[in-house]
Design goal:
The chain has six helices and two strands. It is mainly alpha-helical and 168 residues long.
Length: 168
């Protein structure tokens, strides 16, 4: 199963690469523009949010680290960020994903409990549900990002998982 999940994640990374290449063609100021009613407000903020959620759920939460051991992007980091910075943030996310896959191999249905900031009691789930959540979360926000780009006047490439590479 580990090989299948690693291959699945490599397909996700291919779609992300397509999105990165598209975003690099958009002026940085536009990537920081607020688009009302979408994601975290801007393309940049939304994409950083995705990377940080991988890192939080599959890195910090799964390994039972305290929230203080994990840092989301700060306001200043977000304001100064560009696509290269986001690529670097996703490299950290990739490291968290691969560490998670190795650690929880053969334990996909084992319960993990940890505290989350929005509730008093620890929250429990399984590694497979965490992985599924983070991957579907990325695609949800990728849809928002390409919609925001359209609202800003840009035509995004096809970023559907099944259509991004002939080698699939």
């Amino acid at each position: 199963m580990l090989d299948v999940l690693k291959q699945q994640y490599s397909y996700i990374r291919l779609t992300r690469q397509t999105l990165f290449e598209f975003l690099e063609e958009i002026p940085l100021q536009k990537l920081h523009n607020t688009v009302p009613n979408f994601g975290s407000g801007s393309i940049i903020k939304t994409h950083i949010h995705v990377a940080d959620c991988y890192r939080y759920w599959l890195g910090s939460y799964a390994f039972k680290q305290k929230r203080i051991d994990f840092s989301f992007a700060t306001h200043n980091e977000i304001e100064r960020s560009d696509v290269k910075w986001i690529r670097d943030r996703f490299e950290l996310a990739d490291e968290a994903v691969y560490r998670f896959l190795e650690e929880f191999n053969f334990r996909w249905f084992e319960q993990i409990s940890n505290h989350v900031k929005w509730q008093e009691e620890p929250w429990s789930t399984t590694p497979l549900r965490l992985l599924t959540h983070t991957e579907t979360h990325e695609f949800h926000h990728k849809g928002q990002i390409v919609s925001m780009a359209r609202h800003l006047g840009y035509t995004p490439p096809n970023t559907d998982l099944s259509l991004t590479s002939n080698s699939l």
